[in-house]
Fold this protein.
Amino acid sequence: MFYTNYYFRKFLNESWLRPVGRFIKHTSIFMKLEDFFSKMQTTLPTSKSSTNTIKRVLSTKITLGGGDTQQLDGLNGLIQRLKSLEQYQDIELNGNTISSGTRECKSRWDAIKQHIPQRGVVLDLGSAEGYFSHRIAREFPEVLVLSFEKDTIRTNIQSIIFSMEGLTNVVVCQTEISPLEIARLASVVETIDVIMALSFLHHLPTYQIPTFLTMTAHLTPVYIVEFPSPLEIGVCNYSAVERFEHIEEILKRTYPSVVGIGNFRSHLDNNVQRKMWKAQRQSLTRKNLLPYMSAPIPFVRTHTLDFRDDKGWILDNSKKLKVGVNAWNLLHYNIVYPASEWWQRNSVDSYKKLLEKGHNVTDVRPWNLIITPSGLEVIDSKDVPNEIIALRPDDIEKLAATFGKLKPQFLW
Ligand SMILES: C[S@@+](CC[C@H](N)C(=O)[O-])C[C@H]1O[C@@H](n2cnc3c(N)ncnc32)[C@H](O)[C@@H]1O
């Protein structure tokens, strides 16, 4: 019935018809027409296809946890390929190191883990083989980790390991991050509690480093940065390492507190240490934020986010935000884990659960889903009957198609 109401109301909403619409909405003609369209609705084939989509998607087999020989073979093959290039971090499976990298990880983790909050979102930039993302996902179940890495062998390794362990509080994006990607993230309502840039910044083109650092610093109350020393002969992008040797000075422009949290042996020279910094501030305000990426600007209102150490993230001075990230925004970063079937199934399932509870589900859109440490959740599903944003025949189809491709498609 909502579907027909939708088309009928959309028809009445055409600008030239609005005065007529306003009049007939209050007359019995409206009731009769509505009744007529509602009867017609029962024959619309698309509603049946939505039901089929729900059934098909919900019956998809998703293999998370356990792992099989095929996955193990795939993992071994990838590790061998990586070894012939460079395996930077240790690779762990179910708590055991299955392959050692060139860089010491355990001592760095011991220093880092003290600064990971019990709940929140952590963004790991240049996450390599996923050692730290993995540790956080395992040891902090109420944290959602975003693991961003450009190398496909490394992201494939991470995906297999997370899938074998059945971890879903981590999203892996195979993506090359630049200041533009960070600007995109900074333009929307998104809450990131910790950013880690460990031995990452010097991989950016030298001219991008100050912009990148300043932009990321505006996103997060806690920033953990490790940076090489110019004494390390053979380090990548040596000119950047030399130029930004005192990287903490840039952090100090944004953060009132910047402290060293450790010195860790370089893999290039055992006698040289790399410094790690933790930059922190107690409060942070971000203004003029769009509700989600590519929102139709004149038609949506913008928002303010406030972070306070003791209160967490507050939206528009009123609403305390849940720990999570908008699924639609993440689609812009090339998600490779969890796999599309997981997203399809959980997105459809989230809406199905609301329908089963008798909610009048409206505004079924990928930007109304957030991924939390415990799975996908619907937000902003307005329980308003007969609105223009009512559930339409093909909404579920479009949702499944979007998450099937894991791309930000404009199907609506
Ligand atoms: C030196 S490793 C550091 C890995 C890890 N952060 C650590 O400290 O153990 C740098 C990693 O960043 C990745 N990387 C470099 N530039 C990147 C970019 N623009 N976007 C995403 N990943 C990048 C590399 O592929 C590599 O895995």
About this structure: The chain has two domains: 2-62+330-405, 69-284. The domain at 69-284 is CATH 3.40.50.150 (Rossmann fold). Residues 1-15, 17-46 have pLDDT under 50 and may be disordered. The longest strand covers residues 257-265.
